[in-house]
Inverse folding.
C-alpha cells in the first residue's frame, strides 16, 4: 500500500487488476465468506455473463470485469438509484440495461462514491438522472477530466473509449456536504459524505432494510489492499471507517469498492490495519 502523506495532487489510484476481476465473475453473495445469509447470483434475461448479487429486497450489486469495481442499484416505487457507473460508456449502458431488467425501474438517481475513472466514466449514459456526489466532486471532474482519461488509458481502457467518456462526463447536480436522505418512493436511502479519506470526495450510501446495506466505495476493499494514491488523506481514513461502522452497525452488509461483500468485523480489522500503516501522518 502506498501512502503519500499530505500530498494533494489529484492522481487517481491504480485500479485492481484484470486477474482480480476475473476471479470475481460468477460469484454470488451466498458464496462470499464474509456474508452469511445473503442472496444468490442473478442475471437479466439474455445476460448470463452479467452476474448481479441480490443483497436485500430491491438491492443488488455487481462486480464489473477488468478492475473489479462494484456498482449497486436500489429500487423504489418512483425509480432506481444506481451507485457508481463503471469505467466506460459501454459499461454504463450495460448497467442501465441490467437494472431495468432486474428491478423493473428506470434509473432516476445516480450516486458517485468517489471521482476515479473506474467508478464514474459510465455516468453520461444515465440521461435525465439526478447525480449526487460529495461536495467538491463537480469541480474536481471539471479540472481533471484529462487526467482521468490518461489514467484510464494507462490502465488498459481503449483510448477512444476513455476520450469519449471524459468528453461527456457530467458534473454532479447535487453536492452532499454532510448527510442527505433521498426518497426513492416508498424507500429512503441516506447519502453520507465521509471523507476526505481514500480521496478528497468520499460518499457512502446507507440502504436501511433487513439487512441494512452500506455501499462504501473504495474506503473499503476486499480483493486487495486499500489503495492510497496521491489524492488520499491517509491519516483521516480510519475515522472514515468509524463513520461507516456507526452508519451500519454490527448486522449490516458492507459493500466494498472492490471485492466481496464483508461484515463489520472485516471493517474493524481493515480500520486497525490502516491506523497502524498511517500512524504519525498529519491529518
Amino acid at each position: 500500500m502506498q501512502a503519500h502523506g499530505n500530498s494533494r495532487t489529484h492522481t487517481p489510484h491504480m485500479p485492481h487488476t484484470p486477474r482480480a476481476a476475473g476471479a470475481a465473475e460468477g460469484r454470488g453473495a451466498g458464496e462470499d465468506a464474509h456474508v452469511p445469509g445473503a442472496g444468490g447470483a442473478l442475471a437479466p434475461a439474455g445476460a448470463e455473463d452479467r452476474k448481479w448479487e441480490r443483497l436485500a429486497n430491491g438491492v443488488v450489486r455487481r462486480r464489473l470485469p477488468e478492475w473489479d469495481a462494484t456498482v449497486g442499484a436500489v429500487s423504489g416505487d418512483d425509480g432506481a438509484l444506481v451507485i457508481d457507473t463503471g469505467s466506460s460508456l459501454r459499461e454504463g449502458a450495460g448497467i442501465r440495461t441490467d437494472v431495468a431488467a432486474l428491478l423493473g425501474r428506470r434509473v432516476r438517481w445516480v450516486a458517485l462514491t468517489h471521482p476515479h475513472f473506474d467508478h464514474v466514466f459510465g455516468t453520461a449514459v444515465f440521461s435525465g438522472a439526478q447525480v449526487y456526489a460529495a461536495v467538491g466532486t463537480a469541480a474536481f471532474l471539471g479540472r481533471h477530466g484529462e487526467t482521468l482519461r490518461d489514467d484510464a488509458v494507462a490502465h488498459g481502457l481503449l483510448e477512444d473509449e476513455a476520450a469519449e467518456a471524459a468528453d461527456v462526463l457530467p458534473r454532479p447536480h447535487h453536492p452532499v456536504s454532510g448527510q442527505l436522505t433521498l426518497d426513492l418512493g416508498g424507500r429512503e436511502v441516506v447519502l453520507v459524505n465521509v471523507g476526505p479519506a481514500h480521496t478528497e470526495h468520499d460518499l457512502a450510501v446507507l440502504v436501511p432494510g433487513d439487512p441494512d446495506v452500506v455501499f462504501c466505495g473504495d474506503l473499503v476493499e476486499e480483493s486487495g489492499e486499500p489503495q492510497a494514491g496521491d489524492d488520499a488523506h491517509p491519516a483521516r481514513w480510519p475515522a472514515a471507517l468509524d463513520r461507516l461502522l456507526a452508519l451500519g452497525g454490527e448486522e449490516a452488509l458492507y459493500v466494498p469498492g472492490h471485492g466481496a461483500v464483508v461484515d463489520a468485523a472485516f471493517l474493524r480489522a481493515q480500520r486497525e490495519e490502516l491506523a497502524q500503516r498511517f500512524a504519525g501522518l498529519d491529518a
Summary: The radius of gyration is 17 Å. Residues 137-154 form the longest helix (18 residues).
